[in-house]
Amino acid sequence: MSNATNLLRAAALIVLVPLAACDIFETEAPGRIADENLDNRAAISGLVVGMSYDLAQAMDGLLEAWVPLAAGELFHGGSYDWADVPSGTILPEDVDGIWGTMHQARWVAEQGIVRIEGILEDTPGAFESSPFVARAYLLAGFANRTLGENVCETAIDGGGREPHTVHFERAIDQFTQAIAIGQAAGSDDVVTAAYAGRASVRAWLGDWAGAVQDAQQVPVDFSYVSMLSADGESNQIAYETHDRFEYTVFDTEWADHPDDPRAPWIIVYEDDGSVAVGANGSTPHYQQKKYTSTEDDVPLVSGTEMLVLRAEAALRNSDIPGAFLLLNEARAHYGMDPLVPPLTLEDAWSILHVERGATTWLENRRLWDLRRWFAESGPAHHDFLANRDQCIPISQEELNTNDSLRG
User: How many whole angstroms separate alpha carbon 347 and alpha carbon 178?
Assistant: First the structure.
């Protein structure tokens, strides 16, 4: 979106419901209410529901095709026209919708926090100890992390070009606020999720020591998700792979790992024993089984991801035994056999690439991982993105309407 006013309507597209006891709030079909009616305490829970809804919309929009196809997690075997994204070309004219959706999630969360601060300003300490505020900062952090991991560069609220890393910097501040306010509010799940979110963005900004420190605060069985439902923002990748056969695991790296519980899939057969084909009529349909319902939630962070992040930090210090202790702890959580530590860093990094990819499979994280590893030299390098676009460019709509980008 070219400026903040283009997104004012998003703040009103919420439902005023109480906080739910879940990872991110359940959402229902939104309805319009007057903007001025949001400036009261009764509206605060609904404001945060709106933030949750918009983040879920961004996560689902990315997952529907952009990240899985661009990162090679799935192969296009359907009838939809996704331009040249499956072959690795992502053009500004193709990303208007997802660019706007990601920025809407960020703007609604950030401006919602400003609004809540104004609502609570007459009560000392209320803002700094509110569970609603803690969760709002958490959602803002995830919205910015999602942008930072997926865009090539950015333009914020009608401003000029900036590096994608500005979203990581904003996310660090927001996750830090979520930790402090969440602790004051007694919101343990928010605090743990914020540590996990901050661990990743610290790593992406080069602070691997800080990332490890944060990641150590997250139990292995912890998970924090973006809530999807059939009544609100639904899981479209489940629909496209189980009802329409649009995307397949066939001809991807993960087809070589048929028994990995972190990246589950099956070959679909017809009644006559032949392999079913996709909606294009020819591509074998290897069906992902991570998401089987449109109500399945998408993980934002997990304890196993934090173990793999710490393992990557260990490899960056050439500590192969330490890295594999952590990888095997994560594998044990899934009931998997331990890995034997290899003798060389090159082999260790090749395994790490697979382990992280499986752990975060179809969670909108793979394109960023491949992008950052492609930029690495030495054993950390991964060459999947050679001759492919590595990220989502500034959209054509933004280029056309943002005066700061013209000329």
Answer: 38
